[in-house]
Write a sequence for this structure.
């Protein structure tokens, strides 16, 4: 018997955790039946459920608003959130929990200068028929962790730089292969054709060495020199490309 009541108490606590005081909605909300169940919703009603959310300035998080349906309640419910903290925006501005769905999701985005503190957001669920349900979403906005945004930006820039370096190395490998082909042609050629190919080979070797050196410089460059080094690599590769056109 004790374990039975303990299970009931646990279920009640889970239902209440993370969501503020709210009201039920739906056709049965205006005239609820006399025998209200100990747990769950009364017939033809619904309520909303959500967990408290913590946001850092400059952060975006997904919030899920769930629905608890009583017997015989299968209406669509549209959601609206009001009283958002200053600097916190919502996407989408409203959402719909269809009759077969169990929740709807929003993206909460805190600007870099969003208001700090603990806030209560009013969440209203409007059913196709019957009264609205109201619940509270607790939002805490904190200061952005030092250097977190800067670190994220730096990591993204480094990943992009590595991708560019790999792509340029592939191009250089292709130029080396074309240089080898040109060298084979020069060996087999005779007369003026051989002379012309050897001249082109000498020029190609000079340009190839320059491009290789620039690429090596790019691979070891510090972040503050990336753009300058990148420009030099691009120019060297453009010169090399003209040789093989």
């Amino acid at each position: 018997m004790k374990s039975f009541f303990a299970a009931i108490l646990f279920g009640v606590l889970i239902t209440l955790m993370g969501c503020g005081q709210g009201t039920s909605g739906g056709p049965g909300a205006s005239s609820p039946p006399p025998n209200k169940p100990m747990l769950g919703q009364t017939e033809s009603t619904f309520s909303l459920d959500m967990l408290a959310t913590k946001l850092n300035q400059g952060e975006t998080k997904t919030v899920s608003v769930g629905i608890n349906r009583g017997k015989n309640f299968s209406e669509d419910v549209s959601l609206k959130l009001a009283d958002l903290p200053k600097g916190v925006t919502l996407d989408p501005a409203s959402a719909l929990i269809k009759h077969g769905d169990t929740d709807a999701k929003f993206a909460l985005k805190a600007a870099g200068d969003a208001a700090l503190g603990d806030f209560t957001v009013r969440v209203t669920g409007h059913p196709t028929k019957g009264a609205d349900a109201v619940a509270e979403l607790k939002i805490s906005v904190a200061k952005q962790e030092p250097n977190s945004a800067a670190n994220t930006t730096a990591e993204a820039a480094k990943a992009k730089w590595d991708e560019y370096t790999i792509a340029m190395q592939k191009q250089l490998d292709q130029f080396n292969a074309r240089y080898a082909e040109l060298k084979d042609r020069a060996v087999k050629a005779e007369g003026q054709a051989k002379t012309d190919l050897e001249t082109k080979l000498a020029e190609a070797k000079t340009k190839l060495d320059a491009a290789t050196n620039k690429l090596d410089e790019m691979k070891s460059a510090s972040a503050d020199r990336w753009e300058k080094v990148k420009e030099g690599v691009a120019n060297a590769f453009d010169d090399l490309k003209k040789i093989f056109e």
Remarks:
- The first strand starts at residue 46 and ends at 49.
- The chain has four helices and nine strands.
